[in-house]
Every structure is written in C-alpha cells, then in structure tokens.
C-alpha cells in the first residue's frame, strides 16, 4: 500500500482513536471522581420527578447508570470502527470492529486495576460487549431494510 492510500484510509480511523482516548480518560478518573459523576446524574434524574426513578434504590440506579454508560461507550466505539473499516474497504469489517472493541474493553478493564478506587472486572467486558451486539443488530436491521427497499423498487419497475 502506498503512502497516499495509507493516509486516505487512516483518516477514517481518527474518530475511533479519539473515542478510545475519551474512554481512556474516563478510566483514568479515580474512584471518588468517577462516583461524583454518577451522583450528579442520579440527582438530575431525581430532580426530573420521574416516579419510577424516585422510587429506585440509589445503589441500583447508580449501577444502572454505570452499566448503561459502558454499553453506550462501546456501542459508539464499535460503530466508529465499523464505519472506518467500511469506508476503507476492508473485508470482514463487522468482525474486525467487534474484535478490536472487545479487546479494547479488556485493556480498559486491565488499566483500571492500576487506578486508585477502581477495579477491573471481567463482568464489565461482557457489559461492554452488549454495545457491540446492539451495533451488530442495528447494522443487520439497516441492511435488511435497505435490501427490502431495493427489492421493492426492482419489482415496481
């Protein structure tokens, strides 16, 4: 691959690299700092006076917020990598995106072992993988709808 081709392809990966850095920065937060973010979100949810939220146990709501954040972070990473591989015309873009996302989740949990007040948990890698699964489902649905639309337009011609 020549230099120009490499530069053309690598530009599509810049958003996913930036997103990995953002995830890394969240993982660098010490335990108390990370908890403060959750307290803020819980307080905002409570202030909305949503009946279901007001009656939830604080620890459960905190757990729910944390795990939703994990799923969302890794869903975004998966989709950014998928887009990059797709635009770069790589083959097996879904598989490559999924493997890189899950491996990054593993390294992120390992990194958290060295951050005061944080723990690396294999359970969180599984939670992060839910983001990948959601991404795969969305891609599947999108492609199915697109194929139906193309098939339908071919029939009406």
Task: Describe the structure in your own words.
The protein has 157 residues and is mainly α. It has one domain. Helices cover 82% and strands 0% of the residues. It contains seven helices and no strands. Helix 5 packs across helix 7. The chain is globular and about 55 Å long. Keywords: Membrane, Transmembrane, Transmembrane helix. This is VanZ family protein. It holds the Pfam family VanZ.
Q: What number of structural domains do the residues give?
A: 1
Q: Give me the secondary-structure category.
A: mainly alpha
Helical coverage, percent range: over 70%
Largest sheet: none
Q: Which band does the percent of strand residues land in?
A: under 5%
Distance between the termini: 42 Å
Short description:
This protein has 157 residues and is mainly alpha-helical. It has helices at 3-10, 14-28, 31-47, 51-54, 58-87, 93-112, 122-155.
Task: Throw out a few tags for this protein.
157 residues, single chain, 7 helices, mainly alpha
Question: Secondary structure elements and their pairing?
Answer:
Elements: H1 3-10, H2 14-28, H3 31-47, H4 51-54, H5 58-87, H6 93-112, H7 122-155
């Amino acid at each position: 691959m020549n230099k120009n081709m490499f530069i053309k392809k690598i530009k599509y990966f810049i958003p996913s690299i930036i997103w990995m850095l953002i995830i890394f920065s969240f993982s660098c937060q010490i335990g108390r700092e990370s908890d403060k973010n959750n307290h803020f979100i819980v307080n905002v949810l409570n202030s909305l006076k949503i009946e279901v939220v007001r009656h939830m146990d604080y620890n459960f709501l905190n757990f729910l917020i944390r795990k939703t954040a994990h799923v969302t972070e890794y869903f975004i990473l998966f989709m950014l990598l998928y887009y990059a591989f797709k635009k770069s015309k790589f083959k097996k873009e879904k598989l490559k995106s999924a493997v890189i996302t899950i491996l990054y989740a593993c390294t992120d949990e390992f990194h958290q072992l060295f951050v005061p007040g944080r723990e690396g948990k294999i359970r969180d890698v599984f939670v992060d993988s839910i983001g990948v699964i959601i991404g795969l489902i969305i891609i599947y649905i999108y492609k199915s709808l697109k194929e139906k639309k193309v098939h339908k337009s071919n029939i009406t011609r």
